[in-house]
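Hi all, long-time lurker, first post. I run a small reading group and we've been trying to get comfortable going from sequence to structure in the token notation. Rather than ask abstract questions, I figured I'd post a concrete chain and ask someone more experienced to write out its structure so we can walk through it together at our next meeting. Sequence below, copied exactly:
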Amino acid sequence: AGPLVGVAPTLSNMVRTGGIIGLSGVLSDQADRVVEAYSEFFSDVKVHQEEGGWVLITGTRGTNGTEEEAS
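-- Answer (accepted) --
Happy to help. Here is the structure in token form:
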């Protein structure tokens, strides 16, 4: 999880407004740390799927690079 947390600002700059990010290869016991790091840049960051101790985390890029407020 450490490398994904460290590159959160860089990856967020590579995703267009409204774009969706998918992060895989995250151990389920490290998911909260990754979700927290990406919530600064993406809205609705969550564990989308879990299988065999691994998770897929998804989120949508906000209009100004931070989490958008729900309408």
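A couple of things your group might point at:
Residues 67-71 have pLDDT under 50 and may be disordered.
The first strand starts at residue 20 and ends at 27.
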